[in-house]
Specification:
By secondary structure, this protein is an alpha/beta fold. It has 21 helices and 15 strands. The structure holds 1,6-di-O-phosphono-beta-D-fructofuranose (FBP).
Length: 542
């Protein structure tokens, strides 16, 4: 009850009357000519910042808005919607908000609900996406856009807010461009969501949900560390969600100081093989055993396997092969394996054959609708600990290791995605939603809601809109070149990674665990409102 009554703190720029200050025209982050050709109507738009105005800039017209939750759950989604609701109602109380059900598919299939004050009040400050549900239908085809337009027209909706990750925001921009090109009066605004933390750039400091999810994982990792340090008999192999990027693993490492944290981007940059990664972990186990410590904590990003260069090349060839062979999915498992082995190039066939059967099979299963391997289903933590166990057995035979190795396995992902948002995410999400209402009021389309200056108190946050085309480049997806928002991976010359790298040797040998405990919702701001170490290091650069 108390938490439901929490009033998210709104940035001062959004209090009362607001006016938009236009920046200079923008460019995409790469491949400018191609992106410009693909988005002639939404390319090059200016960045926009909201500032307080002394009086109302214009009479606020009545408009209806649709909202969609797209992709994986992330803490704070309900606050984006409640901020959007309060924002559109503050502009004109006649405005209505409709929620499309179970993701973008709800728009195409005309499944929706009007979000009234009673519904919204039930969900304020809660985790989850259950207010309207989420889904991964990819909005990309003109037929879908036209079906969507039918219901938007029927409900008199003139703006759609898509709350999603990099792929969903890319599609939001494709939709904005389509409607603009047709001169249809429907605006499309995106909101940066994903626990993975990989939707960020110069303009978007973080995606919502990353803060809460990493705090939840760090709490549980801390609990395991304490258990581990009490019994001193297990090695815990903990896989963490995050898809390709290792931001979650890195943030949890900065919060908890484990003995090992693998960073996929480093593995790729150093061109390491799986055996070399295994060797590195085994060396830490051996070194700790020499001090009589047969226990420890290993953090593993779920996307690791995709970053081992040999496996990355294999996945790229498999992606093309699967995209062009629709009959593959109908084959028996054994026939699929033979098919793959006989159609791959020799080097990739060798890499495929060298993987444990279960992992190899996983790489050939259905991609998600955006073409991603479903890495959350691959048991990398078991694969790694099994290989480390074998390596240690070898070392034992060679009389180079004399410890005891009892591994346990964990996977933290789903348990963090629907947690009640931290104060940071509750405030950030509410501001993103409220700000989206202002972007709609200004007539923007093809923009992402942006709230910045996030290490400062929320009253000082800077609000505005960023043209989505600005974040795009061309990448190969499903065997084709496509315009997409550039995914942010961990930068090895970035301050968060450097802070980790500066300490990891000490953390490997010594037991330096930190036990962060649960998220604090009530209490002093220094305890309750602080965001991640990642943003702290990125903005303070030390
Ligand atoms: P989004 O990119 O849609 O935010 O989803 C993130 C994520 O939680 C990844 O970390 C994870 O790999 C994936 O979703 C799992 O997908 P699903 O929910 O479909 O199992």
């Amino acid at each position: 009850m108390q938490r439901a009554a929490y009033q998210p703190k709104l940035p001062a720029a959004l209090w009362g009357n607001v006016k938009a200050v236009m920046g200079a025209a923008t460019q995409s982050v790469a491949d400018q000519e191609e992106i410009k050709k693909l988005f002639p109507n939404t390319y090059g738009l200016p960045e926009l910042t909201f500032v307080k105005a002394d009086e109302a800039v214009a009479e606020n017209k009545v408009f209806n808005v649709g909202v969609i939750l797209s992709g994986g759950q992330a803490p704070g989604g309900h606050n984006v919607i409640s901020g959007l609701f309060d924002g559109v109602k503050a502009l004109n109380k006649e405005n209505r908000l409709y929620g499309f059900l179970m993701g973008p598919g709800g728009l195409v299939d005309h499944n929706y609900v009007e979000l009234t004050a009673e519904i919204i009040d039930e969900y304020r400050n809660t985790g989850g996406f259950d207010i309207i549900g989420s889904g991964r239908t990819k909005l990309e085809k003109p037929e879908q856009f036209e079906k969507g337009l039918e219901i938007l027209t029927k409900l008199n909706i003139s703006a759609v807010v898509i709350i999603g990750g990099d792929d969903s925001n890319t599609n939001a921009c494709v939709l904005a461009e389509y409607y603009k090109a047709k001169n249809v009066p429907v605006q499309v605004i995106g909101c940066p969501k994903t626990i993975d933390g990989d939707l960020k750039n110069e303009q978007i400091e973080t995606s919502f949900g990353f803060d809460t999810a990493t705090k939840v994982y760090s709490e549980v990792i801390g609990n395991i560390m304490r258990d581990c340090n009490s019994a001193k008999k297990y090695w815990h192999f903990i896989k963490l969600m995050g898809r390709s990027a290792s931001h979650i693993a890195l943030e949890c490492a900065l919060q908890t100081q484990p003995n090992v944290c693998i960073i996929s981007e480093e593995v790729e940059a150093k061109n390491l093989t799986l055996n070399q990664v295994v060797d590195q972990v085994a060396q830490v186990v051996v070194a700790r055993a020499e001090q009589g410590n047969n226990y420890g904590i290993v953090l593993i990003p779920e996307g690791l396997i995709e970053f081992i260069p040999a496996i990355k090349a294999l996945i790229a060839e498999l992606n093309d092969m699967l995209a062009h062979n629709p009959e593959f999915a109908a084959m028996e498992a054994a026939a699929q394996r033979d098919y793959v082995l006989s159609h791959l190039s020799p080097a990739n066939a060798e890499a495929f054959a060298s993987l444990p059967m279960g992992v190899a099979r996983q790489l050939t299963l259905d991609r998600d609708p955006h073409g991603n391997v479903q890495v959350s289903l691959i048991e990398t933590e078991k694969l790694l600990s099994e290989m480390v166990g074998k390596r240690l057995a070898q070392l034992k035979e060679e009389k180079k290791y004399n410890g005891k190795f009892s591994p346990l396995h964990h996977f933290f992902g789903y348990e963090g995605r629907c947690a009640a948002p931290s104060n940071f995410d509750a405030d950030y999400c509410y501001a993103l939603g409220f700000n989206a209402a202002q972007l709609i009021n200004c007539g923007c389309t093809g923009y992402m809601s942006s709230v910045r200056n996030l290490t400062k108190p929320s009253s000082e946050w800077i609000c505005g809109g960023i043209p989505i085309t600005m974040m795009m480049n061309i990448e190969r997806r499903h065997g084709e070149l496509k315009p997409v928002i550039k995914k942010a991976l961990v930068e090895l010359d970035g301050a968060p990674f450097k802070a980790f790298a500066a300490h990891r040797e000490e953390w490997a040998l010594n037991t330096c665990y930190i036990y962060p405990g649960p998220i604090q919702y009530f209490g002093p701001a220094e305890v309750c409102d602080q965001t991640t170490r990642t943003i702290f290091y990125e903005q303070n650069k030390d």
